[in-house]
Batch of 2 targets.
Target 1
Amino acid sequence: MVDRSKRSRLMQQFIFVGPTSLFFFVIVLIPFFLGLYYSFTSWNGISQHTSWAGLRNYLHIFTKDPSFLNSFWFTAKFTLFGLVLTNLLGFTLAYVLTRKLFTRNVLRTVFFVPHVIGGLLLGFIWQFIFVRGFASLGAATGWSFFNLPWLGTESTAFWAVVIVFVWQNAGYLMVIYISAINNVPKGLLEASKVDGAGRLQSLMNVTIPLVMPAVTVCLFLSISWSFKVFDLNLALTKGGPFKATESVALNIYNEAYTISRFGMGSAKAIIFFIIVAVISMLQVRATKKREVEL
Amino acid sequence: MMRRTSGWLLTAALLPALLLSGCGRSGGNEDGVTTVHIYQFKVEIAEALSAMKAEFEKEHPEIRLDIQTVGGGTDYGASLRAKFSSGDEPDIFTIGGNNERDMWLEYLEDLSGESWAGDVKPLAAEQMTVDGKLYGMPMNLEGYGFIYNKELFQQAGITEKPLTLSALREAAQKLQDAGITPFANGYQEWFVLGNHNVNVAFAQQPDPVAFIAGLTDGSKTFAADPVFDQWVDLLDLTVEYGNPNPLSTDYNTQVTMLASGEAAMMQQGNWTQGQLDGIDPDLNLGILPMPIDDTAEDNDKLYVGVPSNWVINKNSPVKEEAKVFLDWMVTSDTGKRYITKEFQFIPALDSIEGTEEDLGLLGAEVLAYTDKDQALSWNWSRLPNGMPNELSSSIQGYLGGKLTKEGMLKEFQKNWDNLSVQ
């Protein structure tokens, strides 16, 4: 009897976890180890034969390939600005839209919608805005801001990608922050008011510490989004001008499919994986410490 | 209870198998009709191709064609690779010559024995030949130079075709004085710079193939090469007399500028004919060479090559039927008519004739240059994979003021040294 219930419990676990682990295995784990294997070979992605290359790909990346480091530099800068601006804007929107505004439901939807549109499509829409839309606005208003060659120079193209990224993702973080702010007990806010705290003081000392779990989540999301950014650059600038907006993901894709060095691309992907894993772990650990519980 | 769980378990185990088997492709032969799967990237001919397919199937009821077109914005090369690695290999597909031919060589059927193989123009056959064997059927010829609007040239008082760099500068000055933008530069597009523009410097070498080999083995450098030095003069000229913001001008904008009469010249090829006709069918157009110095004779040339080739998968069970189709396309009257009239292709085979009425003004001019032996080669398919994109971004860096001329050539070298390692 005991044996039977144990077996049935095992069976249940198998049924519930089994399919997920199967897909995890097939879609994540196996490709990962295949990639690890390919990173030690020189394979062009087509041939049926691969030849063992040992550590040659890794050495080549660090000694002869300036574009990879260049794309890392872009991605790091992009992550920094993308992270800060998306979270600031997301939190500000959430803070404003949890007050009693009569249009707030409409506004919440409006700010969330960009996230629903795919990055590729967004990229093309914004490419049109930057190239045509801004040009005609510039002609109408004469403001130099609109007359900048937005996608034509390195610094403006960088900001162009940041702007679109923030516009796309701030709405999603806003939703997370809204639910966190709504969960802050009203009693605590009233108590702080009674104690004489102003709006800013209760925001800094009551609301923010209590939404720290949401901050952890949002930081994690925005770090992983901006590190993996691919479709936005592809559609908006294709990594140009002069490779100024080539993200690591785009660089890896180009290595494997345009340059046809699949082994080299896999080696880059492995390096990328290690770095992203380390950064994510550090970030989660750091923000976890700041979370408070009631 | 146990019985029920086993039932569930079975379903859970079978589900992925079911999903996976759904992706497979049905066999080639059903009820006496053989299906040939074709995978190609030229979106422009997709419609005409399916009309041609209907005519072919009428004449050959035992063969059915299944044509898939993937191109335009999507990355054809990547999707073709995905098809091969998933085991869903097409029977006929399209690839570029030289490097791509070598990469796919182990899958390619030798077509030297086909009846049409001897008719392929030498210029077109060379890029698909290894050890004297022909591995593909060149789809067509294409050529480029500076497409120009003859009426605007007349308006500005230019009577003679500029064949030297100085003459081109003079012409550009006259156009500018007449209030016309001389050049529409689409330098946002990597292929405009990295394939076509910089190809001028490779093709003007005494022996482009040897020069490219020299770059790889280190006996040649970009910085020490006189032709590259001259090529930069031409590049500078187009920017000096070009539209504002060339780096954020894309292909469509460039073509529209010429078609609307805003600009007088653009560096493009005969493939723009359809789009130009769509905007203004009455444009009086011609193609100018791209001169890099002041000697008229060796500059009066257009750059002509083969953009893509039909190839047959060696491992295909229906390769005989695939050969029948390729043969029909270039030997039957219907097939020939489609190539010149419907696809508006400049034929790559001597056995097919192209008239100006079929090919349009631009195509006819390219064909004329080719037949007069005034064609220089396309070399980007010989460069290390990915090099055109790198060349393009270095040139963009130069045009955007981030790099000096020397810096750009140094950048070329650095990328060459990176990419020529396999």
Target 2
Amino acid sequence: MDRFISKLLFIAACSSIAILALIALFIFKEGVPIIIRSGLGHFLFGRIWSPLEGQFGILPFIIGSLWVTAGALILGVPLGVACAVFLAEFAPARLAAVLKPAIELLAGIPSVVYGFLGVMWLAPIIRVHLGGPGLSILAASCVLAIMILPTIVGVSIDAIHAVPRSYKEGSLALGATEWQTAWRVILPAARSGILAGVILGMGRAVGETMAVIMISGNATQIPHSILDSVRTLTANIAIEMGYAVGDHREALFATGIVLFFFIMALNTVALRVARRRF
Amino acid sequence: MTARMKNKIEILDLSVRFGDAVALQGVTLNIAENEILSIIGPANSGKSTLLMAINRMIERVTNATVEGSVLLGGQDVAAIRDVQELRRRIGMVYAMPIPLPMSIRDNILFGPRLVRRLRKSASDDLVEQTLVASYLWDEVKDRLDSSAVKLSGGQQQRLCIARTLAVGPEVIMFDEPCSGLDPISTAKVEEAMKELKARHTLILVTNNTKQAARVGDRTAFLLMGKLIEVDDTNKIFTAPGDKRTEDYVTGKFG
Amino acid sequence: MRIPPSITQKIAKISLTLACASAVAALVFVIGFVLVGGLKHVTWAFLTEPILDMGRAGGILPAIVGTILMVFVAIGIAAPLGIASAIYLAEYTQEGKVTQTIRFGINCLAGVPSIIFGLFGFILFVVMLGFGWSIISGGLSLAAMVLPTIIRTAEEAMRAVPRNYRDVAASLGATRWQVVTRAVLPYALPGVLTGVILGIGRSIEETAVVIFTAGSAVQMPRSLFDSARTMSVHFYILAREGISNDNAYATAAVLICTILVINITAYTMMHRLMRGRRAA
């Protein structure tokens, strides 16, 4: 009996890997043929995406994803790490106990709501004050920065808490201020954990779909400035999936493959980094 | 001890390793029916490991390998197919009192309920009987349904004894049962043990040599995984056969 | 000239406080923006009437029902599977190559973007298994997506149960399964439920997965094999296609309120669990 239960539980535990394998299998099965037909180089580095003419180059979307993600990290990482340092080292315990779940709640807000806010409020501000169409890399980056904040803050706080207390006490005993201690002792010691959080946040930014569709403008050309409209890999899939057939649909799955590889690489790196100690 | 007594547990050439580390080495030891055997020795001498080998809790440790055999009433414990049955026959009381976070009554009935449904009258009887035997009844009889976590440390430990009694064990093993208790609570626990001897075989692991002297009929001395000697408690504490035993019981090390 | 440490300390403290304040301000702003714009349009009729004229008129009842049914399917599958996985990882095995592989799979699955779950669900459930755009396809895809959340939270909750409880139960003659059901799960329950609630929250928020696997029918679903839209999808369509700003705001307000209730519940449960553990 116990052996039977044990088997059953083992099977359940394997379900995650099974799902992951199925996802890979189906995405690859649908997407690989078109990559082979048009050539990996043409697919990845082609500058023109024109499904009607059978042109499937996703370079604009790769660049779009990179721009948007880079923007989100530039805005979100300093803010996130600062929040983490404040909550872990400076804020009174009671305040931290309220603020931490509040920041976690940012992850709970539907991405479509963020997108909506971007469209209704942020994009018009950018359009009026900075020019361009408003729906742009900048708008998407701002919104994504807020969306990845909980990931970065959460993982960073854990990393800071994992730094031995004696490091901090030693530093304070030598006459360093709390800030000097945080900057010169705690952050360096926690850097691999924080880096893991940043990479995970990066994964979230790359993978985000609905908010990005709503606020990035979705133009299929390669952007030249942060005020340009841009289309990401995820947006490309989501926008055209509704009506795509044949080669076109395969090309969208192929876009999914690129995304899948990218995310897997990021996760693997994050796990490696997180395992490293000090 | 009189030789007429039947052996309840026979340990034959028992060795236990955790990975490469040897915890017990060739221990041979008999425990007679209705006696209290004290096992003394410094930390890491293999006392707790010995207990774990007897009720096969050691199987829950991944890297443990056991050689030799333990006989319970003449039967090899390794051959008992249903390890749960073995553990019901050999009860265990841990160093720290570990009441489960439920009522006093539910704590006691936890073990019996694992095997059968109990009728109200039967369970009431069982609760009273075990609490009386563990010298706790008078203190808790009016609050059997309040949380066991609220009891004092000494009361919790006696509750743990009652809980062990409730599954009807033949042997009860105590693993330093009084290490966290004050002298008065300790006295009550010891008193309970002496009473229990009438119907059970008791093994008391303790690093308190005075307690071993007070409670044990016989005492065994373990050192670094080896059994140095086992004899009547009086003899161990007054005229031990081995120099190391003498050094330990007189407090030269430990 | 070197700035004295006491001054940098002050500057740093102020900037860090500001950083954190701005993060919280963002949260308050997002919630406030939606509630201020939307709550005034939320009426009893809005919650209980069918979607009319593609959402220009009427209410959101079909979207509410669609949301509930899809969450039901998703959690109905993901919760047992996830809790069983967690029991295996926490109670039935030792750390080794196998658990490392399983954990790697869980971590990767947790990182897979929702759009990929959408593609996967579309091909497997909608096309290959022939479920069509339906609540069942949507629910199954969502189940795959929330599985890692449920496993991780449940495992953490089980690991937080004192080791002793297991020893006591085993020493009283409990089988391995009895140890789990009687000495571990009862005390890990708040944590396990927190994971399930977070999974419910994730399912409600999700849009990309649902659009590709459940479609976006506006009618009231009659069976699990009907297409349906969730509140998130409804809101997305209203907002993106500019159908009705008022109704978009109102839907968003309902959505945000639901999410708030869910997250606050999850948080208080987790909090209580931690406090209970400290007391024990």
